[in-house]
Amino acid sequence: MSDQTPPAEDLREETAAAPEVAEHDASTARIADLENQLAEAKQQTLYAQADIQNVRRRAEKDAADARSYAATAFARDVLSVHDNLERALAAIPAELREDEKMKGLVTGLEATGRELVSVFGRHGLTRIEAMGQPLDPNRHQAMIEMPSDAAPGTVVQEMQSGWMIKDRLLRPALVAVAKAPE
Question: Residue 13 pLDDT > 80, yes or no?
């Protein structure tokens, strides 16, 4: 009986060499390889979808910014017209303002200035308040320091108005700042 029944090790060796077992092992390895490739392809698809979504969001933001800030260069140019109009009005002496011949001109220039500021407002341009404010380097550009009774670092004179377009700085206000007494 012991001659007819092979030991367990012999039986394993015989079945391991069987073509069915080798074919099964190859299929299992192939399936595992295909599952890994599928998982990798799914991961790459998810990354690609996330990337596409990020590109779309960025493009939408860029388009919105382009619409909001398209007039920036034009607005900077028109601000010089506004500045010149303010300087012209400030240069008119008080006696000429009261003269009947000049009153119409002065009134027209003032109305033009108000209309220009109104147009700026409709397009998101706002004037930066500077006088009496603490110096804000994000909105003000200090040109000089001058002795004053005001607290050091306070804006005491505005040389040129500053402007914002929506939430961005269009032009900083050129200011004089109070310095500490010596």
Answer: no
Residue 132 β-bridge partners: none
Backbone φ and ψ of 131, nearest 5°:
-60, 130
Distance CA 165, CA 77 (A): 13
| Edge-to-edge strand list for the sheet holding 140-147 | 140-147, 173-179, 155-160
Q: Quote the distance between the C-alpha of residue 141 and its chain's center.
A: 22
Contacts of 105 (CB under 8 A, 6+ apart): none
Amino acid letter for position 53: Q
For residue 3, pLDDT beyond 60: no
pLDDT tens for 118-166 read 999 998 899 999 999 999 999 999 999 999 888 999 999 999 999 999 8
- SS3 label, residue 1: coil
CA atoms within 13 A on the CB side of 18: 10
Range list of H helices, 70-175: 72-91, 94-98, 100-122
Mean pLDDT over 80-86 rounds to 93
φ and ψ of 154, to 5 deg: -90, 140
Q: Evaluate whether 133 touches 155 at the Cβ level (below 8 Å).
A: yes
Query: What's residue 1's pLDDT?
Result: 47
Residue 85 to residue 91: CA distance in whole angstroms: 10
